[in-house]
């Protein structure tokens, strides 16, 4: 007797393969980073013994930078870079199936305080999935990893961060008005010239 498989079986198999890929990519990249750190440490030992201290430290810094850039390039290969329309469709599908997504309305790190102009994708996703958007705000007193932050710079310690909930926005058929109101909320919550910054908000099914 032949076994008949429905479309749900194919979907479950695809989800299982996707999960396996994501786990292997994440832990594989962590293993690669550990190997890079180990190789830099092993190479630093003979340099420290053969070269003057100042030159050895400079060579070690260059080696760490090269290893870190290689690691970043490896991570970039693992990130899917599909079209904006495809990403919105996937987000809507996930939300309709009960997922909770963390989205960044700016699409990048903040360049002009307090926030950049918001992208419309968050409003489109909320509209078509018919789910609300719960805003999240992180206040920080450090410029660590902001635009222009150079790798290797040492931040002033200690660093204080505070996470708080903002307003909850119901989906709207008018995407432009929805995104404008969302952006206005963040501009009102964050100081224009301070270090407090918006980190993200996303549609949720709860």
Would you write up a description of this structure?
This protein is mainly alpha-helical. It folds into 2 domains: 8-78; 84-203, no CATH class. The protein has helices spanning 7-50, 53-78, 84-96, 121-129, 175-189, and strands at 133-140, 161-169, 197-203. A 3-stranded antiparallel sheet has the order 2-1-3. The radius of gyration is 22 Å and the shape is flat. The model is unreliable at 1-8 and 195-206 (pLDDT under 50).
Features of the shown structure:
single chain, 206 residues, three-stranded antiparallel β-sheet, disordered N terminus
Helices and strands, with pairings:
Elements: H1 7-50, H2 53-78, H3 84-96, H4 121-129, E1 133-140, E2 161-169, H5 175-189, E3 197-203
Antiparallel strand pairs: 1-2, 1-3
Helix pairs in contact: 1-2, 3-4, 4-5
In short:
The chain is mostly helical. It has five helices and three strands.
Strand order of the largest sheet: 2-1-3
Helix/strand order: HHHHEEHE
Point out poorly predicted stretches. Answer: 1-8, 195-206
What distance lies between the first and last C-alpha atoms, to the nearest angstrom?
Answer: 44 Å
């Amino acid at each position: 007797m032949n076994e008949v498989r429905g479309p749900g079986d194919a979907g479950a198999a695809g989800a299982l393969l996707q999960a396996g890929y994501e786990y292997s990519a994440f832990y594989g990249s962590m293993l690669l980073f550990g190997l890079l750190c180990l190789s830099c440490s092993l190479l630093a030992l003979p340099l420290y013994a053969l070269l003057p201290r100042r030159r050895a430290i400079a060579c070690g810094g260059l080696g760490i930078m090269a290893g870190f850039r290689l690691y970043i390039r490896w991570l970039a290969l693992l990130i899917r870079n599909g079209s904006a329309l495809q990403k919105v469709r996937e987000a809507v599908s996930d939300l309709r199936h009960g997922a909770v997504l963390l989205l960044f309305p700016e699409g990048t790190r903040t360049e002009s305080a307090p926030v950049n102009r918001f992208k419309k994708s968050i409003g489109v996703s909320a509209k078509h999935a018919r789910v609300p958007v719960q805003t999240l705000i992180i206040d920080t007193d450090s410029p660590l990893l902001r635009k222009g932050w150079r790798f290797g710079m040492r931040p002033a310690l200690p660093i204080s961060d505070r996470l708080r909930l903002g307003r909850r926005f119901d989906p709207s058929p008018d995407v432009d008005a929805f995104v404008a109101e969302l952006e206005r909320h963040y501009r009102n919550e964050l100081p224009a010239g301070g270090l407090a910054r918006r980190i993200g908000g996303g549609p949720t099914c709860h």
